[in-house]
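quick q for whoever's on today - can somebody do inverse folding on this one?? i tried earlier but teh output was garbage lol. tokens:
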């Protein structure tokens, strides 16, 4: 609540643009996977693995068990997607 109370108009706009951009990214990914485009598999793998550096940074700042579990889960998901990428071949 303290974070929300300290938001300025500029920060609110930046947060809104970021959220809208992320929604567009996820919608594009979902539609591309639904229609089974060849590039969708790489898009999904790269979007999922792009969070790993942020998670490593967070762990380096302050190590918590939940952060480590989230990182391990994300790495496992990326490995799974990498191994299953062939299901999109026609």
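ok took a stab at it. sequence:
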């Amino acid at each position: 609540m303290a974070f929300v109370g300290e938001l300025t108009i500029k920060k609110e706009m930046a947060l809104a643009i970021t959220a809208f951009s992320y929604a567009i990214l996820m919608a594009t990914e979902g539609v591309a996977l639904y229609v089974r485009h060849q590039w969708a598999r790489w898009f999904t793998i790269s979007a999922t693995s792009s969070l790993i550096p942020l998670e490593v940074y967070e762990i380096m700042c302050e190590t918590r068990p939940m952060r480590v579990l989230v990182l391990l889960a994300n790495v496992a998901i990326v490995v799974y997607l990498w191994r299953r990428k062939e299901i999109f071949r026609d």
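fwiw The chain has one domain: 2-88. also The chain has a mean pLDDT of 88. so keep that in mind when u check it
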